[in-house]
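Support case: pyridoxal-5'-phosphate complex. Customer-provided input:
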Amino acid sequence: PIYLDYNATCPVDPRVLEAMLPYFTEHFGNAASRSHLLGWTAKDAVETAREQIAELLQASTKEIVFTSGATEANNLALKGVFESVFPQKNHIITVQTEHKAVLDVCLHLEKMGAETTFLQPDEFGSVTIEQIEEAIRPETFLISIMYANNEIGTIQEIEAIGTLAQKHKILFHSDATQAVGKVQIDVKAAKIDLLSLSGHKLYGPKGIGVLYINRNLKNQDLVAQMDGGKHERGFRSGTLNVPAIVGLGKACEIANAELLTESITLSKLRDCLEQGILSQIKGTKVNGNTNNRLPNLTNISFEGVDGELLLSSFRDIAVSSGSACTSASVEPSHVLKAIGVSDKLAYSSIRFSLGRFTNQEEIDFTIQYVKEVVETLRA
Ligand code: PLP
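Agent response - structure generated as follows:
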């Protein structure tokens, strides 16, 4: 099938794979081994990757902490800060459209005494600064708002949120899993204290991610959730996954070099797909903020078709409805629900997410194919 599900995961870029391979075999050392060349080689490779990642975020290498992915990075950020401030402070501000890897962490923390405000976004998936400011309490210790939404692509006003958080001396965490590599990020300009990213969303391997931790945060400000050998300056113990880290570094280097041109190419292809579908198929509507969203994504509702039937009929294209990360459940997408899409229409909404290896031919095919499938199902 034609792969249009890059927001679920990306194939590893061949250049990334090539960079990784030697670290499975000849350079297999433990980056924490200080007494021999194999260890130093591994450590050097990890430090190079740290530089490549830091550069993409405009961060410094000391601020990069490796995790197993964005889920773990989110868990470390929210639980780690909560543990350091509770019971003096206990309130988190977040948004209903966050990934479950933030929402469910909040629900977990509520059982331990936290209180959460889940802000309701507008019909495009955006929250306003006024809305956030109104929710601030004396006990608020964290604002956790994603950079860009995985299902509808809406990009939030990250810099303004960072400024607000700083003004109120509240930490700002952003799950930037879907933004890194797709839009330019400057953690300092945006005043982000904590940022999560994941390797497999930017053509790196699965099972590796990063929590960016602003250098002003010390170990007592963010309690480690994984104790042991005090790797990663004590923030996250565990032997480093050197090949994956090398791959993530390479993926960030490529993103840094190609992000601008790639995002222009992708948004052209995306617009072509979207316009094609909207103009050729009646009863279609785009979900999300078309003025400020990820360049590679469109989420479209198809009226008058059964959602499950629609998805299962798409044999020649790989797309998703709602969030693939929670696809074990057949609930309508919580993101579409939060922006006011009816349950019925949410079921028949499809996320098309394009990527580095998508071409015009595939887009042309997809438009015709989707048209045929939808018309057949409606008939
Ligand atoms: N956050 C967002 C916004 C995501 O889209 C995803 C993956 O779908 C995750 C977190 C989870 O990332 P990982 O697969 O690295 O745990």
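The first strand starts at residue 2 and ends at 3.

Case will auto-close in a few days if no follow-up is received.
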